[in-house]
Structure formats: structure tokens, C-alpha cells
Structure prediction request, 143 residues.
Amino acid sequence: MSERFPKPELYRLTEQVGFNLRRANQRHVAIFARHVTGLTPTQFAAIARLYELGALSQNRLGRLTAMDSATIKGVVERLAGKGLVQSRADAEDQRLRIVALTDAGKAAFLEAHDQALKARAETLQTLTEEEAAQLEALLEKLV
Prediction:
């Protein structure tokens, strides 16, 4: 019977790209949580984009932070609940929501920024600077 169904090459989970990407992300999220208090990585990504680019439509903010519409909606609602962003209808198109940082949101970004950089450094600490740059370039190429 075993000849009829030859044994496939062993599937090693730890050699799978998706598995290792997920493990790396889980590790980074845990490190981020130790360094940055009061914001999740997705919340930080949203306020970082708003700090960098200014007010954006909620849809565009979602695209720029790689979040689907349901996720960005929840993130914006939680940030608004913390007083870090304001969301209002667009004056020209009432269907669109415009999201902007509040003064408290700007302060929260500036406070979290240095801590986020420390989290990044800890995540990449086992790599040389060249390896870290190569990893970031390869990840960008994948997505």
C-alpha cells in the first residue's frame, strides 16, 4: 500500500515562509507592547501616518496602513475614544470620513515614537544593520 501512495517530502512547518512571518510578527507585537504603552501597533501606525501626512480620509488611512475598512473603522473609533483623533464627514462628500490628529494625538505620537524605535531595534537586534536593511527591502518586495 505504501508504494501506491508514495510518502511526500516532509513538510517542515518551521521552514515555511508564512509561519515564520507570523512568528516574527508575534514577537514584534510582544516587544512593541513592552515598549509602547497605551497604543497597539495598528493604532500607532494610524497616528504615525496622520502625523506624517495630516488629515486623511478613513479609506485612504486604511490603505496606507494596510488595514481593511472594518479594521481601520475600529482603530479610528478606539483612537477617537482616547481623544487622539477626530473624525468628521467630508465637506464635499458626506459619505467620506476625514480623520485628523488632535493635539493629544500629536503628543501621543511624539511620546510613543522613540519607544517604537526602541521596539524596532529590539526586534532586529540579532541582525546586522545590513541584514536588517535587507530584510526590510525583501519584506517590501513581498508586499
User: Anything to note?
Assistant: The mean pLDDT is 94. The two ends are 43 Å apart (CA to CA).
